[in-house]
Amino acid sequence: MEPGPGAPRPAGVRRWPATTAIGPFEAQAARTPDAPALLPAGAPPVSYGALNAAANRTARFLAERGARPGTVVGLALTRPADLVPALLAVAKSGAAYLALDPDDAPGRLAWLLADASPVCVLGEGVRDAERPAAAELAGRAVTDPPRALAPQHPLCRAYGPGGWPAGVWTTHAEVDRRVRELQAAYGLGPGDRVLQLGLPLWEFLWPLWTGAALVLADPDRPGEVGELVRDAGVTALRAAPSVFGEPLPEPGPVHLVPERG
User: Fold this and answer.
1) DSSP type of residue 243
2) What is the pTM of this model?
């Protein structure tokens, strides 16, 4: 399928001063606290201010459990509406996240936990996982937490099938470079509604750097991409072609961002 209006612009090799992956989101939240950040399927919008506040509370919860630069926090969450604030919270704490699938084989989960040694696990279905209740988080400050975080610190740790390659780290600087390259090519901004499917978790940060709204699919309704695009007014879609469950509306206001790896 070919890109629609607003197709990617050619971009040469560029260099930017590295920053952390969380700083640009915090700056955007400060500029546009009332703008929609998340558009969950079947749920009310979540503003930038509310998303940032929720992530800040959770980041302080994680810090109490030892999350800081140089440590790992497991994320065993399957619903994007839970996963995005948790990802932001881990980044705010300075720790790197480890994505865990509760449906994975128990032996593989045990091996991942032993190898990565997370200070805690957010979610459920995994040994020692925690899901703090809203009441438990309510007393924590909503301001951006201080952290001794630098671009060279890891943002995530990933494992291939079967555990290999073992423990590949991705730094904030690498994520920062990739997001800036995407932004230079595709130019998201306020008013865009972006749907991400089948991509690395850190790519959920890209729209949130730019003032766009991130459309969150319902995991209980897989394959309904075309319907979601129409209902949510999606203007940009970035996905591996294999995830399309039905044709996208055409013609329409969709700026298709094809997966390039």
Assistant:
1) G
2) 0.86
Query: What is the end-to-end Cα distance of the chain in Å, rounded?
Result: 16
CA dist., res. 154 & res. 212, Å (int)? 25
Q: How many residues make up the chain in this entry?
A: 261
Instruction: Kindly report, residue by residue over 142-153, the tens digit of the pLDDT.
Output: 999 988 899 999
List Cα–Cα distances, 63 to 71, 72, 91, 140, 170, in angstroms. 10, 11, 11, 12, 21
pLDDT in tens, 71-98: 999 999 988 899 999 999 999 999 999 9
Beta strand pairing call for 46-47 and 72-76: unpaired
Is residue 161 reached through a cis peptide bond, with omega within 30 degrees of 0 on the bond before it? no
Alpha-helical (H) ranges within the chain are 23-31, 48-64, 80-93, 106-116, 134-137, 172-186, 205-210, 225-232
What are the helix and strand counts (H, E) for the chain?
Answer: 8, 12
- Residue 159 and residue 202 in contact, taking contact as beta carbons nearer than 8 Å: no
3-state secondary structure (DSSP) of residue 35: coil
